[in-house]
Amino acid sequence: MNIPKELKYTKDHEWVRIDGDTATVGVTDFAQGELGDIVFVEIETVDESLDMEEVFGSVEAVKTVSDLFMPISGEIIEFNEALETDPELVNSDPYGEGWMIKIKIADKSELNDLLTEEAYSNLIQ
Length: 125
What we know:
Blueprint: E1 8-9, E2 14-19, E3 22-27, H1 29-35, E4 38-42, E5 49-50, E6 55-61, E7 65-69, E8 74-79, H2 82-85, H3 89-92, E9 101-105, H4 117-124
Antiparallel strand pairs: 1-2, 2-3, 3-9, 4-6, 5-8, 6-7, 8-9
């Protein structure tokens, strides 16, 4: 199971990469494995400001549809448009080309509520 140490995680199986005032978000290797083959990623919240734990989109796999939750509050400033034609990037490269959104961070103190690699690893075991 791939759980990069430099990322933060949520109990909803999303990862967060912090770069200054911007957070890049995707689903974890564990999540994509549980979902199975991803066939569609729907994000209709670009340019919207959402609170932590609000739904920002959904991911559809062959077997199920799953909501995606904001790991922190902020404005969604970008959607990975490659996922429109290549949703399987979430399966093949969840921490790289399979990223989903970028958020302009509203409250950096919320980053303290995210899980470390070790805490996330304990959650899924």
